[in-house]
Protein backbone atom coordinates (compact mmCIF):
# COMPACT_ATOMS: atom_id res chain seq x y z
CA UNK A 1 0.00 0.00 0.00
CA UNK A 2 0.91 3.37 -0.41
CA UNK A 3 2.14 5.75 1.90
CA UNK A 4 1.14 7.13 1.02
CA UNK A 5 2.98 5.58 -1.86
CA UNK A 6 2.37 9.58 -1.54
CA UNK A 7 2.08 9.33 -5.38
CA UNK A 8 -0.91 10.96 -7.04
CA UNK A 9 -1.41 10.01 -10.72
CA UNK A 10 -2.24 12.76 -13.21
CA UNK A 11 -4.91 11.95 -15.75
CA UNK A 12 -3.11 10.48 -18.79
CA UNK A 13 -3.56 11.76 -22.28
CA UNK A 14 -5.77 9.53 -24.43
CA UNK A 15 -5.71 8.97 -28.18
CA UNK A 16 -8.85 9.81 -30.10
CA UNK A 17 -9.63 8.76 -33.64
CA UNK A 18 -10.79 11.66 -35.77
CA UNK A 19 -11.32 11.57 -39.55
CA UNK A 20 -9.15 8.46 -39.82
CA UNK A 21 -6.25 10.09 -37.88
CA UNK A 22 -5.23 9.81 -34.20
CA UNK A 23 -5.12 13.01 -32.13
CA UNK A 24 -3.92 13.34 -28.53
CA UNK A 25 -6.48 14.77 -26.11
CA UNK A 26 -5.60 17.37 -23.50
CA UNK A 27 -5.19 16.08 -19.92
CA UNK A 28 -8.24 16.45 -17.70
CA UNK A 29 -8.67 17.14 -14.00
CA UNK A 30 -9.61 14.19 -11.78
CA UNK A 31 -10.99 13.50 -8.32
CA UNK A 32 -10.54 10.03 -6.81
CA UNK A 33 -11.03 8.24 -3.52
CA UNK A 34 -9.43 5.13 -2.05
CA UNK A 35 -9.96 2.84 0.92
CA UNK A 36 -8.14 -0.28 2.02
CA UNK A 37 -6.65 -2.46 4.70
CA UNK A 38 -3.13 -3.80 5.28
CA UNK A 39 -1.86 -6.54 7.57
CA UNK A 40 0.80 -4.13 8.89
CA UNK A 41 1.20 -0.42 8.12
CA UNK A 42 4.86 -0.04 7.19
CA UNK A 43 6.27 3.41 6.42
CA UNK A 44 9.89 3.66 5.37
CA UNK A 45 10.22 0.10 6.60
CA UNK A 46 9.03 0.82 10.17
CA UNK A 47 5.70 -0.51 11.44
CA UNK A 48 3.33 2.28 12.45
CA UNK A 49 0.70 -0.17 13.73
CA UNK A 50 2.67 -2.41 16.14
CA UNK A 51 2.91 -5.13 13.46
CA UNK A 52 -0.90 -5.27 13.43
CA UNK A 53 -3.46 -4.55 10.67
CA UNK A 54 -4.44 -0.98 9.80
CA UNK A 55 -7.39 0.63 8.01
CA UNK A 56 -6.59 3.38 5.50
CA UNK A 57 -8.42 5.82 3.22
CA UNK A 58 -7.67 8.87 1.09
CA UNK A 59 -8.86 11.43 -1.43
CA UNK A 60 -6.88 12.99 -4.31
CA UNK A 61 -7.52 15.87 -6.68
CA UNK A 62 -5.25 16.31 -9.72
CA UNK A 63 -5.74 19.45 -11.78
CA UNK A 64 -5.10 19.42 -15.52
CA UNK A 65 -2.46 22.14 -14.97
CA UNK A 66 -0.27 19.67 -13.06
CA UNK A 67 -1.08 20.87 -9.54
CA UNK A 68 -2.53 18.39 -7.06
CA UNK A 69 -3.72 18.15 -3.45
CA UNK A 70 -4.77 15.23 -1.31
CA UNK A 71 -5.39 13.76 2.11
CA UNK A 72 -4.78 10.26 3.40
CA UNK A 73 -5.31 8.64 6.78
CA UNK A 74 -4.43 5.46 8.63
CA UNK A 75 -4.93 3.92 12.04
CA UNK A 76 -1.65 3.73 14.01
CA UNK A 77 -0.35 2.48 17.37
CA UNK A 78 3.22 3.76 17.74
CA UNK A 79 2.36 7.04 19.47
CA UNK A 80 0.30 5.41 22.23
CA UNK A 81 3.10 2.85 22.62
CA UNK A 82 5.60 5.65 23.36
CA UNK A 83 6.14 6.24 27.10
CA UNK A 84 4.23 9.31 28.30
CA UNK A 85 1.77 9.42 25.40
CA UNK A 86 -1.93 9.39 26.24
CA UNK A 87 -3.55 9.64 22.82
CA UNK A 88 -2.80 9.48 19.10
CA UNK A 89 -4.29 6.58 17.15
CA UNK A 90 -4.76 8.29 13.78
CA UNK A 91 -2.31 9.63 11.20
CA UNK A 92 -3.63 12.19 8.72
CA UNK A 93 -1.39 13.21 5.82
CA UNK A 94 -2.11 16.45 3.95
CA UNK A 95 -0.13 17.10 0.78
CA UNK A 96 0.05 19.18 -2.37
CA UNK A 97 2.43 19.81 -5.20
CA UNK A 98 3.07 20.00 -8.90
CA UNK A 99 3.88 17.34 -11.49
CA UNK A 100 5.43 17.98 -14.88
CA UNK A 101 8.16 16.82 -17.23
CA UNK A 102 11.37 18.19 -18.71
CA UNK A 103 13.80 16.56 -21.10
CA UNK A 104 12.12 13.18 -20.84
CA UNK A 105 12.16 13.20 -17.03
CA UNK A 106 8.86 13.37 -15.12
CA UNK A 107 9.17 15.35 -11.89
CA UNK A 108 7.09 15.83 -8.76
CA UNK A 109 7.61 18.70 -6.29
CA UNK A 110 5.53 19.09 -3.16
CA UNK A 111 5.00 19.45 0.57
CA UNK A 112 3.61 16.87 3.00
CA UNK A 113 2.24 17.38 6.51
CA UNK A 114 2.00 14.36 8.81
CA UNK A 115 -0.68 15.25 11.36
CA UNK A 116 -1.01 12.85 14.29
CA UNK A 117 -4.48 13.64 15.53
CA UNK A 118 -4.68 14.16 19.28
CA UNK A 119 -1.08 13.15 20.01
CA UNK A 120 -0.41 14.19 23.59
CA UNK A 121 2.15 13.54 26.30
CA UNK A 122 5.17 13.22 24.02
CA UNK A 123 8.34 15.16 24.85
CA UNK A 124 8.42 16.33 21.21
CA UNK A 125 5.26 16.80 19.14
CA UNK A 126 4.98 14.08 16.50
CA UNK A 127 3.51 16.34 13.79
CA UNK A 128 6.02 16.64 10.94
CA UNK A 129 6.32 18.72 7.75
CA UNK A 130 8.47 17.67 4.80
CA UNK A 131 9.16 19.01 1.34
CA UNK A 132 10.02 16.57 -1.42
CA UNK A 133 11.31 16.31 -4.97
CA UNK A 134 11.13 13.24 -7.20
CA UNK A 135 12.26 12.44 -10.71
CA UNK A 136 11.19 9.50 -12.89
CA UNK A 137 13.08 8.23 -15.92
CA UNK A 138 11.77 5.06 -17.52
CA UNK A 139 10.84 2.62 -14.76
CA UNK A 140 13.08 4.28 -12.11
CA UNK A 141 12.07 6.95 -9.59
CA UNK A 142 14.46 8.77 -7.25
CA UNK A 143 12.93 10.85 -4.44
CA UNK A 144 14.34 13.09 -1.71
CA UNK A 145 12.36 14.32 1.31
CA UNK A 146 13.59 16.98 3.76
CA UNK A 147 12.04 17.78 7.16
CA UNK A 148 11.25 21.42 7.95
CA UNK A 149 10.32 20.49 11.54
CA UNK A 150 11.29 17.95 14.15
CA UNK A 151 10.78 14.49 12.63
CA UNK A 152 8.29 11.98 14.05
CA UNK A 153 8.73 13.07 17.71
CA UNK A 154 12.55 12.94 17.66
CA UNK A 155 14.30 15.70 19.63
CA UNK A 156 16.29 18.32 17.65
CA UNK A 157 15.66 16.44 14.41
CA UNK A 158 14.77 19.35 12.12
CA UNK A 159 16.63 18.86 8.83
CA UNK A 160 16.30 15.06 8.81
CA UNK A 161 16.01 13.46 5.39
CA UNK A 162 14.88 10.40 3.46
CA UNK A 163 16.12 9.38 0.02
CA UNK A 164 14.82 6.38 -1.89
CA UNK A 165 15.14 4.66 -5.24
CA UNK A 166 12.42 2.44 -6.68
CA UNK A 167 11.43 0.85 -9.96
CA UNK A 168 8.01 0.03 -11.36
CA UNK A 169 8.23 -3.04 -13.58
CA UNK A 170 5.17 -4.07 -15.60
CA UNK A 171 5.00 -7.87 -15.65
CA UNK A 172 1.86 -8.01 -17.78
CA UNK A 173 -1.59 -9.42 -16.99
CA UNK A 174 -2.13 -6.68 -14.41
CA UNK A 175 0.96 -7.52 -12.34
CA UNK A 176 3.65 -5.00 -11.39
CA UNK A 177 6.85 -5.54 -9.39
CA UNK A 178 8.40 -2.71 -7.36
CA UNK A 179 11.86 -3.10 -5.80
CA UNK A 180 12.76 -0.30 -3.37
CA UNK A 181 15.66 0.87 -1.20
CA UNK A 182 15.62 3.91 1.07
CA UNK A 183 17.80 5.67 3.63
CA UNK A 184 16.24 7.50 6.58
CA UNK A 185 18.54 9.93 8.39
CA UNK A 186 17.26 11.23 11.74
CA UNK A 187 19.37 14.24 12.62
CA UNK A 188 20.94 14.14 16.10
CA UNK A 189 19.41 10.71 16.80
CA UNK A 190 21.12 8.19 19.05
CA UNK A 191 22.63 4.99 17.63
CA UNK A 192 20.22 3.06 15.43
CA UNK A 193 17.91 6.00 14.75
CA UNK A 194 19.11 6.33 11.16
CA UNK A 195 18.73 3.23 9.01
CA UNK A 196 18.24 1.69 5.55
CA UNK A 197 15.05 -0.07 4.48
CA UNK A 198 14.44 -2.51 1.63
CA UNK A 199 11.27 -3.87 0.09
CA UNK A 200 9.95 -5.81 -2.89
CA UNK A 201 6.26 -5.39 -3.72
CA UNK A 202 4.14 -7.46 -6.08
CA UNK A 203 0.86 -5.75 -7.04
CA UNK A 204 -2.10 -7.09 -8.99
CA UNK A 205 -4.83 -5.02 -10.64
CA UNK A 206 -7.99 -7.01 -9.96
CA UNK A 207 -10.22 -4.77 -12.05
CA UNK A 208 -13.17 -2.53 -11.15
CA UNK A 209 -10.98 -0.37 -8.91
CA UNK A 210 -9.64 -3.23 -6.79
CA UNK A 211 -5.93 -3.94 -6.36
CA UNK A 212 -3.94 -6.25 -4.10
CA UNK A 213 -0.33 -6.11 -2.91
CA UNK A 214 2.17 -8.42 -1.24
CA UNK A 215 5.34 -6.80 0.11
CA UNK A 216 8.50 -8.31 1.57
CA UNK A 217 10.16 -5.66 3.78
CA UNK A 218 13.21 -5.45 6.01
CA UNK A 219 15.43 -2.80 7.65
CA UNK A 220 18.69 -2.48 9.59
CA UNK A 221 17.06 -0.06 12.06
CA UNK A 222 18.34 -0.14 15.62
CA UNK A 223 16.36 -2.61 17.74
CA UNK A 224 16.51 -0.57 20.92
CA UNK A 225 15.59 2.65 19.11
CA UNK A 226 12.56 1.15 17.32
CA UNK A 227 11.21 -1.00 20.18
CA UNK A 228 8.74 1.27 21.94
CA UNK A 229 7.67 1.28 25.59
CA UNK A 230 6.76 -2.07 27.12
CA UNK A 231 5.42 -3.63 23.89
CA UNK A 232 8.65 -5.55 23.25
CA UNK A 233 7.85 -5.29 19.54
CA UNK A 234 10.74 -4.48 17.20
CA UNK A 235 9.06 -2.34 14.56
CA UNK A 236 11.75 -2.72 11.90
CA UNK A 237 11.77 -6.51 11.68
CA UNK A 238 11.49 -8.38 8.38
CA UNK A 239 7.95 -9.23 7.34
CA UNK A 240 5.50 -10.07 4.58
CA UNK A 241 2.73 -7.48 4.35
CA UNK A 242 -0.48 -7.99 2.38
CA UNK A 243 -2.98 -5.32 1.40
CA UNK A 244 -6.10 -4.69 -0.63
CA UNK A 245 -7.37 -1.32 -1.87
CA UNK A 246 -10.44 -0.03 -3.68
CA UNK A 247 -10.11 3.14 -5.75
CA UNK A 248 -13.14 4.98 -7.06
Short summary:
This protein is mainly β.
Percent of sequence in beta strands: over 45%
Into which percent range does the helicity of residues fall? under 10%
Round the mean pLDDT to the nearest integer and report it: 91
Beta strand count: 17
Major sheet summary line: 12 strands, antiparallel, barrel
Strand arrangement, major sheet: 3-6-7-8-9-10-11-12-14-15-16-17
Q: If helices are DSSP runs of H or I spanning 4 or more residues, what is the number of helices?
A: 0
Give the termini separation.
16 Å
Radius of gyration: 19 Å
Structural class: mainly beta
Overall 3D form: globular
Low-confidence segments, ≥5 residues, pLDDT <50?
Answer: 1-24
Along the chain, the helix and strand elements come as EEEEEEEEEEEEEEEEE
Name the features.
248 residues, mainly beta, 55% strand, single chain
Verbal overview:
This protein is mainly beta. The chain contains no helices and 17 strands. Strands 3-6-7-8-9-10-11-12-14-15-16-17 form a twelve-stranded antiparallel beta barrel.
